[in-house]
Amino acid sequence: MAKKKAATRRSLKFHPLAEAYRLMEGEEFQQLVDDIREHGLLEAIVLHEGKILDGRNRYRACGEASTEPNTVEWSGECGSPEAFVLAKHTRRNVTKGQHAMAVARIFPEGGRLGPGQRDPAATTVLNTVISSAYVKHARSVLRDAPDLADSVTAGVVALNVAYVETRERRRAASGEESRLKRLTEQHPELAELVEQGELTLAGAEAEAKERDARERQARSAVLDFFVMTAKQITSYGNDRFMETATRYMSDAAFRRDLNKDLDKHLPGMVTTKDRRTAVATGAKKFIQLLNQMEK
């Protein structure tokens, strides 16, 4: 490494690669502060590109202990800054899940620096410090549930628990997409309300179910009316019925009386409002049809 030097009073920022791992907190951090206060900073803080590549906790502890931190520039150890960060943390108090998540953050594409480029030094570290299965699970959590990824890094949630929860979320999201697609095809106006946040998907589905039930009931009522009418025509005789119907339907007074009778008797004949409305509509449409046929 390069020669150590005392850091200036300026505030140092953390390198993005270093932030793949959690910061010390609580009693663990206080022990580091006490150790530095008693013995001084024994391991220099490593800088790269003007930022702390290794030693974030030591830097913070120096501030708490009123100790001037010594820094050194990263000089190529481990072959790459990515591999250096990974290698430094293999010796520290980090769980396999936290380490896998750090690897996933540093190498979301498996050690690739860019299209078709790999970091051989980092690949060597990856193959020795953590299993590929752990890293695969960590990448899945990081991609689909970043909040859980943060919890794994912080040590709040174990990686295997986060992975199971991520899979459940993915299945639920897939199911919701299918449900919304079906709603869009059958009731686009309700789907639009869901997308605008004015209705929940479950609420829209409940409304669609009620609408479909009303539609089926109304359709059934209209069909019942026309089946009943067809039976009456058949029993009376087609020609005779049409002759009689035409004669009566030519009388405006008869048509008014028929409408009144429909309004009067349908409520007692049919049980639900939707069904009564459908039958009345169907009956009146039939009257109009006969009237047109007369002409």
Task: Describe the protein's architecture and organization.
The protein has two domains: 5-155, no CATH class; 201-294, no CATH class. A four-stranded mixed β-sheet has the order 1-4-2-3. Strands 5-6 form a two-stranded antiparallel sheet. The termini are far apart. The protein has helices at 26-39, 56-65, 81-89, 96-106, 120-129, 132-144, 146-154, 159-186, 188-195, 201-236, 238-249, 252-269, 273-294; strands spanning 5-6, 45-48, 51-54, 70-73, 112-114, 117-118. With 295 residues, the protein is α+β, with helices and mostly antiparallel strands. It is 68% helix and 6% strand. The protein is rod-shaped and about 115 Å long. A hairpin with a 2-residue loop joins strand 5 and strand 6 (117-118).
List the helices and strands and how they pair.
Blueprint lengths: L4 E2 L19 H14 L5 E4 L2 E4 L1 H10 L4 E4 L7 H9 L6 H11 L5 E3 L2 E2 L1 H10 L2 H13 L1 H9 L4 H28 L1 H8 L5 H36 L1 H12 L2 H18 L3 H22 L1
Parallel strand pairs: 2-4
Antiparallel strand pairs: 1-4, 2-3, 5-6
Helix pairs in contact: 1-2, 3-5, 4-6, 4-7, 6-7, 6-8, 8-9, 8-10, 9-10, 10-11, 10-13, 11-13, 12-13
